[in-house]
Amino acid sequence: MKSFFYKWRFYSLGREEYAECMNKLFINNLYNLRQVNTIVAVFAGIYSLVPILYERDLINGAVCIATALIALLLGLYTNYKMQVTIVNDSFVYISTILFYMNIMAFSIFMGIWSNSDKQVVIFFVFLICSLLMFINPFTFNFFLTLSAIGVFVALTFVFKSEEKIAVYNTLYAVIAGVIGLYFSWQITKLRMGLELSTSLLEEERNKYLNQSTIDELTQLNNRRDFMQTFQRYLHNYRTSDDWLCVAIADIDFFKNFNDHYGHPKGDDCLRGVGAAFSKVKENMGVYTARVGGEEFAMLWFEQDATHVEAVISYFSGLIRDMNMPHEKSKVSDRVTVSIGVYVEQLGEASDVQTLYNLADKALYNAKEGGRNCAVITGRKLEQYKITPPSKK
Questions:
Q1: 177 contacts 146 by C-beta, under 8 angstroms
Q2: Which of 161, 46, 63 is nearest to 104 (CA)?
Q3: Per-residue pLDDT tens for 297-330?
Q4: At CB < 8 A and 24+ separation, what contacts does 3-12 make?
Q5: Which residues contact 36 (CB under 8 A, 6 or more apart)?
Q6: 93 or 195, greater pLDDT
Q7: CB 282 within 8 Å of CB 314
Q8: For the chain, which domains are there?
Q9: CB atoms within 10 A of CB 92
């Protein structure tokens, strides 16, 4: 029996995929719990008017109202938990069981204690509908259904006086349980298959997205992503930020490096400089990208324009610590980088290309000024140059 229950999930999805799909689908159970409890609350609340107004049966009316209140509280509590904390699987299981208990109590009262044979169908309808609302492991649904049928059948034989009615009620309960389990099983498989397909498509989408925005050699963002991010930074920023900083960096005499050491070593150099940019991103929250060949870029916000120098100095120190030999460099026997930085006050009427060109011009000034340095300038900032200290 156990093999029959689990065969489809382990062989069609696999254990890991099954567990991952169930975790993702459990969040849907929370939305369903909130919705189905709202439906039950409305239904039971309206249904309570029938015995109270037309039959003058206060007991039946009170039971309906109690069911409605319990369902409403369960729905509100589920909604509260979804907003204030990350719920786990146990909360989903417990909430589902509480929902079942509320429905069972209401349906058993209507189907047995009220002794109305026509109202027995209420139990079956709620049982099947509630099974189809949730995507739980099949054994969990099987346990809930078997428990509901067992309780209903036992109480039917105890409290129903006519044997014929008890037999029919038992038969109806078993049929309803089998139908509910079968459709729950099929819907769960379909939902899990859909979730798995969605996950695979999402992975493929992210893969192609990364390929289009990530530089394969350095694992930094590429020029395409840089220009898109630049546009976003220019128009979306915090009110506490005052300055947008654009830096363009270039490895000094990289062509000489490539010609002397060969392209494999040139790739190692690019990876090393890319690693330095990655550390700047991780430790200082600066956006970094490789925008072409040996050219790199940085974007970041500042509250104080004087703090720009701290970012550049940190990066220059990483390059110095890299300590990669460069015998054909005309400024040092180690790999060095020239940087141009343009600082623009946020809210000024500027476009991406203009700011990029201004930062590129600052880079040109850094190269003309001897390389292995950074030139920092801006519309409201007087241009100055900083040179990293030599390695001891």
A1: yes
A2: 63
A3: 999 999 888 889 999 999 999 999 999 999 999 9
A4: 5/138, 5/139, 5/142, 6/138, 8/189, 9/138, 9/189, 9/192, 12/189, 12/193
A5: 99, 129, 130, 133
A6: 93
A7: no
A8: 2-208 (no CATH), 223-386 (3.30.70.270)
A9: 24
Structure tokens at 51: 């015995």
DSSP letter for each residue of 88-140? -HHHHHHHHHHHHHHHHHHHHIIIIIT--GGGHHHHHHHHHHHHHH----HHH
Name the band, by pLDDT with cuts 50, 70 and 90, for residue 254. Answer: very high
Most confident of 260-269, 343-352, 375-384: 260-269
Residues 6+ apart with CB under 8 A from 237: 244, 301, 346
pLDDT at res. 362: 96
Tokens of 264: 């494999």
Beta sheet of 295-302, edge-to-edge order: 287-292, 295-302, 243-251, 337-345, 374-378, 381-386
